[in-house]
Amino acid sequence: MNRRILLAAAAALPFLAVGPAPAAAGSRACVDSPDTALRVCIAVDARGPSYQVVRNGREVIRRSALGLSLEGDGPAQVNRIERIERAYADQTWEQPWGEQRLVRDRHNEMRVRLAGPAGARPYEVVVRAFDDGFGFRYDVPAAGPVEVLDEATEFNFAGRYDAWWYPARERERDEYLYTRTDLDAVSLAETPFTLQGEGLYLSVHEAALVDYASMNLRRTGPGAFKADLMPWSDGVRVRRDGAFVTPWRVVLVGESAGALADSRLVLNLNEPNRLGDVSWVKPTKYVGVWWEMHLNRSTWGGGPTHGATTANVRRYIDFAAENGFGGVLAEGWNTGWDGDWIANGDKFSFTQAHPDFDLAGLADYARQRGVGLIGHHETGGAVENYERQLDAALDLYAGAGVRAVKTGYVKPNGTIVHPGPDGATQSEWFAGQYMVRHHQKVAEAAAARHISIDAHEPVKDTGLRRTWPNLVSREGARGQEFNAWGRPTNPPEHVTILPFTRLLAGPMDYTPGIFDLTFGKAKVEERVQSTLATQLALYVVIYSPVQMAADLPENYAARPDAFQFIRDVPVDWETSKTLAGEIGDYVVVARRQRGGADWFLGAVTDETARRVPVTLDFLEPGRRYEAQIYRDGPGADYVSNPYAFETARRVVTAHDRLELALAPGGGQAIRFRALD
């Protein structure tokens, strides 16, 4: 027996390895999940290496190619399994913050070394099989600089499925509405790529995306997809120097949509916390100068309508302090916003404030009131300009006591500019290796100063928050801001899709909590398409350790009955459970407050009214709770009567059952306050 040790965040995680065990050319090597329901097999034949996945005797993924195409490789290819090593793990580790404090990592591992004749570059495929899916990656012992020209990885699905997806490599990055189509209607899709059908729910994604290109999925035939890496401008997918591993290619497998949402597989495939003590990372609710600018009531640029003034930010600080919020965001505080800032992102200064904004004074005032400023770095996609100023910008914030920064990269996809090796301008994709490296650089520079990052227009999340816990949240989907722009706004089904697609990747800074749902707009597609109760439920349904109360302070003051839930709801959780849901129809989520006994529930529906029964057996047995209910009122409808709203209270136990009445576009939020 050989023993290899990986360190988990909470304790050492032992792997008991068997091997190496020789295998004959053309043979298969298989690994089962701990519950033996899932089997992943690797084989090599005349067509090359491949894998296949079976669940409970039923083929889920048919023969799918494996492999990398590296610059300089000759015609000789791997043609045999040279060695197999096996390992298993069963350990629980602790998240410093998250949707679930304790995470169990239980899997079986198989490491397969593929080799061939002289001239063939050997490499290993590492597979980890979990009860709720599997992941695999390539381990390449290359020497010297190497270029990845292509990745052969396929996902050929057995059976008929519908897909929830949006097209990759489009102008607005990941900010598109999801559609449901037959698999064969998909062209090029971003991940997570979620499927349903044949009594199963699947989702393809990746984990631990570091110094590599983001993976999309390109349909190559009926039910057949191939990894499509976002390339550099010269067509090379990835550049590495020395031995390297790829990100994990991940497939979640479950018998319900909720099983996907409650999986922690992506987190488990990431490395443990590298930052040590991260008590300085503070999950929080925040307010700020943001929504008013989307409503054109103030501006990011300077002048008489400038929003981020000292006086206006002090007003938000006072509101935050009076209502228990931990942070205040001030977008547009720095110079560079005037004119076409998207086209001229290189004009941004990240250390020079507008004359009417006193950073040091506001930071002191916020500190006196028990509130922290949240910094803002919009780059306009001018990455080189940002990196030149990065250290000075973060030092400025650190000196002022700013412990969280929201970054932004508003730039059409494929137009991120940087100088090439010969000095000529090159344009890159927003999630190619160039941007993956950039985001990692920002995360590490911020961590060195005990600053957290909330990235907008980001590279998609792949669970890196486990390794770098200062990566607290991201955008990476159509958020609330689209509801201010009216072109058109997000339909009600959007928030019932996100938990089973985008949120499988990680937390999302959706910015919920809009109370003025119409803001003078008569057409429903030009305003927020939800009821008031839905805006409360989103604080539970859409997970993020930083949650904004996005509306204006005066709109919250006008509805203290509804605002009370936002004041009460936590952002850090002991455990989370998806109680019910169907993608695109409805979802019900319950979460228990970290370090407390109270539970919180959020439920939202699409444009269809429905009644959803919920058993309260997630509550602690033998304990009584006061259910503080915030729900759609009589006649509520997101089109005609979005403000119909009521509250109710009743005492419940784990033996009780509630029937949630959800109006069209409606929702319900409940706090279960422990009484004894």
Secondary structure: helix percent: 10-25%
Radius of gyration: 25 Å
Parts with pLDDT < 50 across at least 5 consecutive residues: 1-26
What multimeric state do the chains show?
A: single chain
Assign an overall shape.
Answer: globular
* Alpha-beta content class: alpha+beta
Q: What does the main sheet amount to?
A: 12 strands, antiparallel
Determine the strand fraction and express it as a percent band: 35-45%
Number of DSSP E strands: 40
| CATH topology heading of the domain at 2-268 | Beta-galactosidase, Chain A, domain 5
Distance between the termini: 52 Å
Round the mean pLDDT to the nearest integer and report it. Answer: 95
Task: Show the helix and strand layout.
Layout: E1 2-7, E2 12-21, E3 28-32, E4 38-45, E5 48-55, E6 58-65, E7 68-70, E8 80-94, E9 102-115, E10 123-130, E11 133-140, E12 145-151, E13 154-157, E14 162-165, E15 179-182, E16 188-189, E17 193-197, E18 200-207, E19 215-221, E20 224-229, E21 238-241, E22 244-245, E23 248-254, H1 257-261, H2 265-268, E24 284-289, H3 291-294, H4 310-323, E25 327-330, H5 359-368, E26 372-378, H6 383-400, E27 404-408, E28 416-419, E29 425-428, H7 433-447, E30 452-455, E31 471-474, H8 482-485, H9 494-497, H10 532-541, E32 546-548, H11 553-557, H12 560-568, E33 573-582, E34 586-593, E35 599-605, E36 610-615, E37 625-632, E38 645-652, E39 657-662, E40 667-674
Parallel strand pairs: 24-25, 24-32, 25-26, 26-27, 27-30, 30-31
Antiparallel strand pairs: 1-2, 2-8, 3-4, 4-5, 5-6, 6-13, 7-12, 8-9, 9-10, 10-11, 11-22, 11-23, 12-21, 13-20, 14-15, 14-17, 16-19, 17-18, 18-23, 19-20, 28-29, 33-34, 34-35, 35-40, 36-39, 37-38, 37-40
Helix pairs in contact: 4-5, 6-7, 10-12
